[in-house]
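The data are quoted verbatim here:
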Amino acid sequence: MTDTVNNMNEAQIPSACGQEVPVYASEAKDFIALLKPRVMSLVIFTALVGLIAAPGNMHPVLAFVSVFLIAVGAGASGALNMWYDADIDMIMARTAKRPIPAGKVSPQQALGFGITLSVFSVALLGLVANVTAAALLALTIFFYAVIYTIWLKRRTAQNIVIGGAAGAFPPVIGWAAVTDSVTIESLVLFAIIFFWTPPHFWALSLFISEDYKKVGIPMLPLVAGKAETRKQILIYSIVLAPFGIAPYFLGFAGPVYGAVAVVLNLLFLKGAFAVYVQKANADRALFKYSILYLFLTFATLAVERLVLGG
């Protein structure tokens, strides 16, 4: 962390030795913000669907606690991400109001908070569910905090592609919490999110690339250009489509899911093609639709399982 980060927006009080000591006006909501609640909501949702879709039964209380712990682990990695990225967060417009750059939480507090929640969530998930689920959660935290945040994000335009694996693990963890295993079905759920992530974030980066440019993050539009980014969005969208429909063909989703998945993926491909041919505001439209796509894909799988017995 830079001295700038450590000293920004701090109140100062004299210490016993006459030096100024920073005082952070932290509130509970500031520590909640460190957990990236919007990202956590996606983790909760996809982990829950993975748990619902998995064969077998789990006591409702244990299922609830397991999903909660998966969410806490994801929040822990978010806090570690904010700790490491505080220097660039204070420069980027969309992140300048996060707790550390806003002077609400110190970098040291964020680091301690993230590590504590990481250990807590992994250890307790091992006790509540099983070691497989706990190990996968530990891998997820490590992947997001170390592989993506510390290693990839500032070094390569493939940061989103490789780092996207962290966001794809929650349904696998939910599945493992029930089955104590990783199967082809859970890996298909992983693949849906994994191949969804690049088109989703690259569509966003097309219209906020200047924000990344200010802090030197090598997002694809800045490194390879917008034309190449549009082509990659289309390529990944084409690769995503068969994985999006695969749950039906593998037999762990029924005809309702199959029909919905076909429509959703055709619309995704249509949006990606619109971006490729540079239709006006197509990047913003695809970004918004991609969120709806992921929600409806996983929601349909869960509802079919619960209501229709798919």
In short: Residues 237 and 268 are 7 Å apart (CA to CA). The chain has 14 helices and two strands. The first strand starts at residue 11 and ends at 14. The longest helix spans residues 184-215.
